Amino acid sequence: MQATRSRRKVAPAAAYGGDSGDKLEQLLLSSAICNGEDLGPFVRKVFASGRPEILLHLLRHFARSKESEIEEVCKSHYQDFILAVDDLRSLLSDVDSLKSTLSDSNSGLQSVGGPLLSSLDSFVVAQNVSKNVNSALQSVTLCIKLMELCSTANLHVSNGSFYMALKCLDSMANEFQDKIPSSTLKRMLERKIPEIRSHIERKISKEFGDWLVDIRVVSRNLGQIAIGQASAARQREEDLRIKQRQAEEQSRLSLRGCFYALEEDDDEVELGGDDNESYNNGNNGLFGFDLTPLYRAYHIHQTLGLENRFKQYYFQNRKLQLTSDFQVSSMTPFLESHQTFFAQIAGFFIIEDRVLRTGGCLVSKMEVENLWETAVSKMCSVLEDQFSRMQTASHLLLIKDYVSLLGVTLRRYGYPVDALLNVLSKHRDKYHELLLSDCRKQIAEALADDKFEQMLMKKDYEYSMNVLSFQLQTSDIVPAFPYVAPFSSTVPDCCRIVRSFIEDSVSFMSYGGQLDFYDIVKKYLDRLLGEVLDEALLKLISSSIQGVSQAMQVAANMAVLERACDFFFRHAAQLSGIPLRMTERGRKQFPLNKARDAAEEMLSGMLKRKVDGFLTLIENVNWMTDEASQGGNEYVNEVIIYLETLVSSAQQILPTQVLKRVLQDVLSHISEKIVGALLGDSVKRFNVNAIMGIDVDIRLLESFSDNLCPALSEGDANLLKNALAESRQMINLLLSNQPENFLNPVIRERSYNALDYRKVMTISEKFRDSSDRLFGTFGSRGARQNPKKKSLDALIKRLKDVS
């Protein structure tokens, strides 16, 4: 059956009469109805214009125009409808037969499927029960596991195994919290897991806080042990150097048959460093140095996800502890507290070094370096302040030694300590000034206590302590005891003071970052000897010497001190670690030369005054005697007796060269006095017999010099005789047959170089006085005496012309 689709048509213009406007309206309305458009605008328009009847008329006209079309469509479909009804009637019979067939099939199916459906229902019920039982078993199993895990977590918490407890909590949260069927257990987990985490955090924070308190005491002990080990190592080095110096000294003494092996006992227990891993898991039980609580707290906080917060908390607390360690108590002298102060800081940074190297990322290298820079700055400030207040060299040295040990200790851990060493070097001059001041007081006390008596040593140890220890011996043979030394107690006392000064100076300069410091030690040693000791001796000589014996003892002491000075410079070189040949090559003059010269001048002056007392007897000489004295005049015999007595005692204590210089000065003074007597106003004239007597006197003095040859060398004896050159040459000139030869430059230079022409002229004029009587004596002895008189007159005339 096929339906004919109606075609939309536009209504033709109505035959209705009207004007063109009404036709247009009819066309628009017909078109809108055919196109299925909305007629609302037309309705509003006609009501607005007040003419609704027109619209009704148009609608009725349109409806009448469509009736014919409807009729045609109905006619075209009527045949199809009849055919369809016929088909439905035939189909109805087929449906009735199918219905009966279906009814029969349904009855058979019901009879067969009934038992099966009942069995299926039973199976479904059993399957649901099984599923419920399995689900219940799984839930019970899950709850049992959860409860076991909770029990394990409680056990770990009670045993302090916080990490395992946290792992249990993580397992509960990740594996059970979302799967647990029990709402009660789920609420319990949601409440208890955060509580247990907070509990563990509080417990571990408390343990860490206790560790922070304990580690301060541990740091101090650790620093003291580390610095003590550095001190022990330094002492071993010093012992090795002493053995080496002894070996060098014995080698210098040509003991070629001896061999020395310097061995170092390697029994030092190291605290740390790259080559010594004595720590196990961050702890060192030997020194109570245990980092386990720290690493445990760090690990727990990492597990809790609070790693960064713990790092910051640790760093801030350690920084506060370091700041607290910087506090210097004003109630306790720094000398008493400096070891604790520096040991605390040393222990702090030893621990931080270990934490840096074994603690993972707990602290960074930059943070430790910043802490160290802060500590160095503070320690430098404290040292500057304390050093500026100190007025005792030994106190400053004690602190310097401990600071240098601190530097050695921390340098092993990679910390730069140059700033600390620079502070020590900066106060080098102040230390030595204080040391010089102390030595000045000690030397003054030693000199004040000196009794100017030779030192008596009864035992071998006294000889070793006072002589051998300063290399004052003149022979390697040990003398018999009791031994009387040529020096007084001042010498070993001053030597001990100087040696102590050298050792203190070297101790201050050692381990201060400067390897070659001998020149500095030598500079201050020169000051000690040249300014302090020399000035003290000069003061002693100028104010406290009474009598020849004391002056002689001081001169003897100066000779011994000259040998001691050689020892001082060698000792300073040995302690400074430089070869002895360098000190011998750079040796200057004797630093105590002013005191030595003053002592010898003092002794010579006293001897001269003593001799002057005997030389007053020269006034008793008969200058116009008729016979020459054969045994010497009285004054010279007294002088020689005194000098022989003096020499016999002086040889016991005075070195040969000192005795030679003193006697040379005394004999030169005697010679001047003899010439001065001839030149003086008290002697108006003299004859040849008196001159011959003076010649005998000079010969006796020369014989005295010659008799000293066992004690003095021949050259030294000749030097003593040369001290009488002026008087000897004057007497030779007056006894010469050709006095005029004095005018000959060659002869004068050879035979009369010690004479002053003015003195020659004056004395020669006295020799010429009463010439008749004077030269009459010559005439009695020989016929030809006038040439000598003429020569003497010519000499006097020429000398007057020159003057």
Automatic annotation (TrEMBL):
GO BP terms in the entry? acceptance of pollen; Golgi to plasma membrane transport; intracellular protein transport; pollen germination; pollen tube growth; vesicle tethering involved in exocytosis
User: What PANTHER family does its record include?
Assistant: EXOCYST COMPLEX COMPONENT SEC15B, SEC15
UniProt similarity note: Belongs to the SEC15 family.
Is DNA repair tagged as a keyword? no
Give the record's keywords alphabetically.
Cytoplasm, Exocytosis, Transport
The record places domain Exocyst complex component EXOC6/Sec15 N-terminal at 59-227
Sequence ranges assigned to domain Exocyst complex subunit EXOC6/Sec15 C-terminal in this UniProt record: 420-766
User: Which function does this protein serve?
Assistant: Component of the exocyst complex involved in the docking of exocytic vesicles with fusion sites on the plasma membrane during regulated or polarized secretion. Involved in polarized cell growth and organ morphogenesis. During cytokinesis, involved in cell plate initiation, cell plate maturation and formation of new primary cell wall.
Any one GO cellular component localisation term in the record: exocyst
| Cellular compartment(s) | Cytoplasm, Cytosol
**Keyword Transport in record:** yes
Q: Which InterPro entries match?
A: EXOC6/Sec15, EXOC6/Sec15_C, EXOC6/Sec15_C_dom1, EXOC6_Sec15_N, EXOC6PINT-1/Sec15/Tip20_C_dom2
Primary location class = cytoplasm
Q: Which Pfam families match?
A: EXOC6_Sec15_N, Sec15_C
Q: What is this protein called?
A: Exocyst complex component
